[in-house]
Amino acid sequence: xxxxxxxxxxxxxxxxxxxxxxxRKRPVGLTVERLYTTPGVHPYDEVDWQRRDVVxxxxxxxxxxxxxxxxxxxxxxxxxxxxxxxxKYFRGAVGSPQRESSLRQLIDRVVGAYHKAGVDNxxxxxxxxAEIFAHELTWMLLHQVFSFNxxxxxxxxxxxxxxxxxxxxxxxxxxxxxxxxxxREEGLIFKGGSGAGLNLSRIRSSKExxxxxxxxxxxxxxxxxxxxxxxxxxxxxxxRRAAKMVVLDVDHPDIVEFVETKAKEEAKVRVLRDAxxxxxxxxxDITSVQYQNANNSVRxxxxxxxxxxxxxxxxxRARMTGEVIDTIDAKTLFRGIAQAAWECADPGIQYDDTxxxxxxxxxxxxxxxxxxxxxxxxxxxxxxNLASLNLxxxxxxxxxxxxxxxxxxxxxxxxxxxxxICFADFPTEPIADTTRxxxxxxxxxxxxxxxxxxxxxxxxxxxxxxxxxxxxxxMTGAAYKRSAELAGVVGTYEGYxxxxxxxxxxxxxxxxxxxxxxTLPASIPVHKLATITWKDALAIGERNGWRNAQxxxxxxxxxxxxxxxCDTTGIEPDLALVKFKKLVGGGSxxxxxxTVPRALQVLGYQPEQAEAIIEYVAEHGHVIDAPGxxxxxxxxxxxAMGERSIAAMGxxxxxxxxxxxxxxxxxKTVNMPEAATVADVEKIYMEGWRLGLKALAIYRDNCKVxxxxxxxxxAKETATADAAPVVEARPVRRRLPKKRPSxxxxxxxxxxxGYLTAGSYPDDGxxxxxxxxxxxxxxxxxxxxxxxxxxxxxxxxxxxLEFYVSKFSNLRFEPAGMTDDPDVRIATSVLDYxxxxxxxxxxxxxxxxxxxxxxxxxxxxxxxxxxxDVDLEALRTSVDAAPAQSETPAGVTPAPVEVGSSTELLELxxxxxxxxxxxxxxxxxxxxxGSCYVCEGCGSTSGCS
Length: 945
Hints:
This protein folds into 4 domains: 9-164 and 383-559, no CATH class; 171-364, Alpha-Beta Barrel (Anaerobic Ribonucleotide-triphosphate Reductase Large Chain); 577-638 and 856-906, no CATH class; 742-852, no CATH class. The protein has 30 helices and 24 strands.
């Protein structure tokens, strides 16, 4: 196979960068060389194909959501990727002859449209070049090297409108006609399952007068109508929840009201939930809560951030005249933004001056907003189509990143993305007009976290950031180089002539940022090629101009990440070291991520050592105290969740490392622990500005109500209008009788001996405990006596035992370790042991199962039940067929039957609740993907891409 793909367009014909439609002589087209394919061999003939049955069920109740049998996929595609592509992307009514049933049909449908449009619009020098391009595109999609965004798979090659974009930015002016048109356009975009963002700052504030003399409503009031519209369309049958972004400038007079909107609504949710209303997602009463269908962001300026640093006043300006009509203490406002984000995760921050300093088309208008996930930022009434490369596919067997192949793959993908604009349809005419004039593209990548781990780099390390920066620089440099070559073949984007100077200035800024990258050994070859690529891009662009106003973003890659069998999405680190994997023929397995063995090999561990470490990770879910693993290597295996989770600033530093090499921004939420303070949020937002980010959002664990179960509904339903006044109920202490049964258990935890005495009511309910630990009269003994008294009184006042068990199990402190109890072999603390023992003695099996607490006999029975009628050899064969497990010699165990996703598996292992929503399609707990969430069960996302 040849290792290059190239275009000689820049070296022949007209170099003036003539616009589309210019009658002057043009180069004859791109000359395409082979990168992956072999002459005379079709990509489909190089792989082994399998027939599979796709049956997808709801993990909560077992009902079948989707079924299609006999679909055809390559044998190396995982069951999960097969299920998601079949259910999401195959077109035609299920059961009809028109229904697609093979991956070949899907790829041919899409690639055929790109091939035809490329030929019709003069992209290729010869028919042979066009055929090579189609074969290369087919090979890369077939082998999961990259993927287009979901709208391409939904629409291209079908009778539906050929919408290819997932990201939209709208505009609204200070007129009622424009505001009502905003509602309409947003609704059309939601109807198609996509999302949109816009800036409301042109709408005059509630402190300003209308021309009639009345007071204006202000933008926040109009947000209510748009939010209700989004909620209605969502519940009216859209494929996923509506995704939208609302932005307001920091100098808008209504900024304080805007900042507080969602925080106040979150407080309302808590009050209504506690009063017995159904505040579950999709519940009967949740519609009374406003502003929940949008992400909110404040657009801050350098002037404002400097005022925060200096502690000075900041002016709020009238929308119509620009005059200062009010002032506010900048620190107070900034603290308010951080406080609201701490309470409910909104608003995020967008850094206006940084965004517009990197704007290639300032003569055509400022960048005022973003798409819902914050990665696409460009002109109002515009769109961006996305595609993402799977970085792990470019990791060679020797552990080196194949920079040359990566750069050539980028050229193929960016060519296809530009071709799509030639035949694409758009939801509104203004969006169509702007997109065709500026041809915005958003190439990006997935699996960065997996790549860093597989190469032995910690995510939060200089080496990790250096490699990520070099790869991102090479990607954008190669994309713009090809864009300049395309400009020499089919012309520049229409808005280029007006913005040529600014566009070239931004290209020089990217190249200068590349020169400033601190290279470390693994990143040196990638950075050298990036430097050469940027030099070529600038030279060709100076002659030809550029075909695209922007080229790159980092999107969430939710559904398409699962389609490519990626361990990690977008720029994210690994979620956890263990994951949930579906198997051919049904069932599931818990495996150690495929990147862990590769990392151990790169770090120099022998196969026997690696096997022991992997088995330890499979059992514990982390690497702390893994046998033979050196402590200095722990950081390589740090993840987003669980033990040794990556600190919030580690995420911010990684974003800052790659931001200078992106045309747009980064879809990512910086997760913060529940114990984080408002000051911590302020620090994150301030550092994001100082480090040159374009946008930043945070999420503090458990800051939102989530999906609580509503209590007291029965009482509410039976109440009548003429019922007596409600008297506040107070807890009543139910004391134990003088003579009551009790049981004493002696125990040992980590060498510390103690006694637990539990007293019961005559009807067998636990009513008191006494714990003897430490010498009589010691501080420890006194504290345990007081603790026992507190728990006992709580039990007698009616606090359920399962509440105490959920709170005190899994607490970690010394003494901890092995116990002498066969039912609880290891305890993370004395309290962990005590409440597990109490649960085993006093809670029914159903409640213990929810808490993940089982006796030794019950665990044995579960294993016997799982394996009793199973052909283990056949199961092992099916497991080995999956690519991830073929690289995982150890650390494979059956996944618990109640687990439906990696997030749920992580919760079960660590005893912690991951703050993620349930999938509205199949009920599985979703996992983070950028600033959105993705469902591993069916591929649904909560975002726009």
